[in-house]
């Protein structure tokens, strides 16, 4: 089972820098901006639809998409941006799915997607990583280091979620307000401290202890985390369908919890309600023995 990590951040936050390092550490990176380019390449149906909606002014002399021209249109006009997204997002989703499926079974797939929060995609990932830098610093980097026009950068920032909304969606915040060296160390820590143990944990089918094997305090804390994710107290039985709801799954993962089938295998997405007549909730932290066994009511 691949471990899918969502990576996002505002424009200019350092996502590309982080995803390049994750790739060098062994992750398979699926880059939504690159996919977005591919699906509107010369001769594609995507490009034809854009030409139909936005007219010849956004097509360059060589027949390719004039990206700066289209950017000028859509980042100043929310309806035009929605129209563009209605064309491109289904194509981007389909192509990304193919790339996910092509990844080796035991891979860590890092999905670098600028609009993860805006599109409510948090529940798609085992871990959501947000690269965090205050807006004014991102603006400075975009203008000074990438030579972007300040007004153009501001209008893209306005088209995106704000820093608070992104932070609220994060399982892990990677602060990138320091130097590139600071960032490199943080990403190394993220890889060795969170991602690799998480993957090993999944691959092993969560070794070790039976439900109830944690200390009493640990088991109690686990129960409280599950109840917080569900938004209600747990009875003896739980409808596993309730655990499959995207908001709940996301809430469980944000609290570092994994849903397993009764035999201890990690439940695949949307399969907590599979064949088994019970589910087990475990802490994603390999050091914790706490397990909660829930009968299927
Ligand atoms: C408008 C386009 C042609 C401008 O192209 P350009 O080469 O100037 O920018 P590029 O695609 O490299 O994007 C750079 C950054 O702009 C921001 N951005 C791009 N699209 C959007 C959008 N729809 N809403 C908010 N921000 C966006 C992201 O931070 C992205 O990383 C292009 O961004 C586009 O086709 N956007 C629609 C597809 C999309 O939503 N892409 C985002 C990834 S899902
Ligand atoms: N800690 C840092 N200190 C200084 N410069 C940085 C730092 N992190 C990233 N940068 C630079 O800031 C710019 C933006 O970084 P990067 O391209 O990785 O961001 P991004 O989030 O991928 O942007 P986009 O949203 O446009 O895809 C780049 O020029 C990058 O080299």
The gist of it:
The chain is 47% helix and 15% strand. By secondary structure, the chain is α/β, with parallel strands linked by helices. The chain has 2 domains: 3-200, P-loop containing nucleotide triphosphate hydrolases (Rossmann fold, 3-Layer(aba) Sandwich); 208-296, no CATH class.
3D structure, described in words:
The chain is an alpha/beta fold and 297 residues long. It folds into two domains: 3-200, Rossmann fold; 208-296, no CATH class. Helices cover 47% and strands 15% of the residues. It contains twelve helices and nine strands. It has helices at residues 15-25, 32-38, 45-54, 67-74, 78-102, 135-144, 150-158, 163-168, 180-203, 216-230, 240-244, 246-254, and strands spanning 3-8, 28-31, 108-112, 127-132, 172-175, 237-238, 257-261, 278-283, 291-296. The chain has a five-stranded parallel sheet with strand order 2-3-1-4-5, sandwiched between helices. β8 and β9 form a beta hairpin. α3 (45-54) packs antiparallel against α5 and α6 runs antiparallel to α7 (150-158). The protein is elongated and about 70 Å long. Residues 268-274 have low confidence and may be disordered. It binds dephospho coenzyme A and adenosine-5'-triphosphate. The site of dephospho coenzyme A (COD) has 19 residues, from α2, α4 and α5.
How are the SSEs placed, and which strands pair?
Blueprint: E1 3-8, H1 15-25, E2 28-31, H2 32-38, H3 45-54, H4 67-74, H5 78-102, E3 108-112, E4 127-132, H6 135-144, H7 150-158, H8 163-168, E5 172-175, H9 180-203, H10 216-230, E6 237-238, H11 240-244, H12 246-254, E7 257-261, E8 278-283, E9 291-296
Parallel strand pairs: 1-3, 1-4, 2-3, 4-5, 6-9
Antiparallel strand pairs: 7-8, 8-9
The site of adenosine-5'-triphosphate has 18 residues, from α1 and α9.
